[in-house]
Design brief:
Radius of gyration: 23 Å
Order of helices and strands: HEEEEEEHEEHHEHHHEEH
CATH architecture of the largest domain: 3-Layer(aba) Sandwich
Largest sheet: 5 strands, mixed
Mean pLDDT: 91
CATH topology of the largest domain: Glutaredoxin
Low-confidence stretches: 6-17
Strand content: 15-25%
Number of strands: 11
Structural class: alpha+beta
Shape: globular
Number of domains: 2
Strand order of the largest sheet: 7-9-8-10-11
């Protein structure tokens, strides 16, 4: 390294240091303020945004923006108009993908294609949801398109309701795939109880903002709400 290069690097570091120190102070201020408002929960991430003085705060799949002085919170999407990009949705996708990676596939009900798996789609489902049943009636078509379907339980009526117990019974069955197929065909399952992941799935759904079923999560964390026919979904997944 030449003397000139060393000087330039040194000056750059000197210029950046106050900015980093200021950001650290802002983040500490935001953390303190949020701990007063939400004492039982800590944000996963607090980081600067491209907008000076505004910080991104992430709780699971929920994204907020807080000013560096901790006085103002903004709920909404931050758009980069130059790049035509939704910066908030990019963060949500990252958080959803992270959540998916933390779930164990053995706790899901998985329908795999006979041939090569081209895509994996994880679906929050309710056995009593009409469009969930419609999607499941076409399960073979999804599999024929090389789409692996992984079900997570999200009984919309909540815990300790009839739909909840149906989900638990399906997950506790010896043959989960056969059980959920029977349940979605309207057949009454024998009431079963075991250690099951239904509560964990419901918590995961709430964390990423699921409000209805079916809700599809793609491998990159993109979320699609509602029923999507197999051919249309395959085209979406195959696009560059």
């Amino acid at each position: 390294m030449t003397v000139r290069t060393f000087v330039l690097v040194f000056l750059a570091l000197v210029a950046v240091a106050p900015v980093l120190a200021g950001q650290a102070e802002d983040i500490a201020t935001i953390e303190k303020r949020l701990s007063q408002i939400i004492p039982d929960d800590r944000p996963d991430v607090i980081r600067p945004t491209p907008l000076n003085g505004l910080y991104e705060v992430v709780y699971g799949g929920q994204v907020y923006y807080v000013t560096g002085d901790g006085h103002y919170l903004i709920q909404g999407d931050l758009l980069d108009l130059r790049a035509m990009a939704n910066l908030t949705e990019q963060t949500r996708k990252q958080q959803r993908a992270k959540l998916l990676a933390g779930l164990d596939e053995k706790d899901m009900i998985v329908f795999e294609p006979d041939g090569p798996v081209k895509h994996v789609v994880t679906i929050f489902t309710d056995v009593d949801c009409g469009y969930c049943r419609k999607l499941h009636r076409e399960i073979d078509t999804y599999l024929d398109r090389g789409i692996e379907i992984r079900y997570l339980a999200f009984p919309r009526t909540g815990k300790f309701t009839e739909s909840y117990f149906k989900a638990v019974s399906a997950w506790c069955a010896k043959d989960r795939k056969a059980a959920i197929t029977r349940a979605k065909n309207g057949e009454k399952l024998p009431r079963a109880q075991c250690d099951n992941p239904v509560d964990e799935h419901m918590a995961a759904a709430r964390a990423v903002g699921v409000t209805g079923t079916p809700t599809l999560l793609l491998e990159d964390g993109e979320m699609i709400t509602g029923y999507v026919p197999a051919d249309r979904l395959a085209r979406m997944l195959d696009r560059p």
